[in-house]
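If you are new to this repository, start here. Below is one unmodified record pulled from the training split, so you can see the exact layout before writing a loader.
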Amino acid sequence: MKILIVINDAPYGTEKAYNALRLAMTLVSEHEEVEPLIFLMADAVGCAIPNQLTPKGYYNIETMLKFVIENGVPVRACGGCLLARGFEKIELIPGVKRSTMLEFTEWNVDADKIISF
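And here is the target side for that same chain:
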């Protein structure tokens, strides 16, 4: 089963990205039969910026993203959203790929479930 997880909020400020990645991490760890896909849109493209420094004891979105990527989860960042925020030349966390609305549309069509945060 393919589950598309769409994240729309910035990495910090709300806990939406955190909760979306907690879900993805649990799916990877507990459900081998599930294929999670993660698409970062709007302010969530900021989740893909490397070298995030958070206070000790505070969750780190970069660390969470690296975990899911290392476990085979495809992660895409909306190219138009990156461009709109001036991030078009910023290097992304290794494993996060710049994407398009066409790929996002295809992921939506192919997904068995879509969860939006």
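Two things worth knowing about this chain: The chain has one domain: 2-116. Residues 28 and 71 are 7 Å apart (CA to CA).
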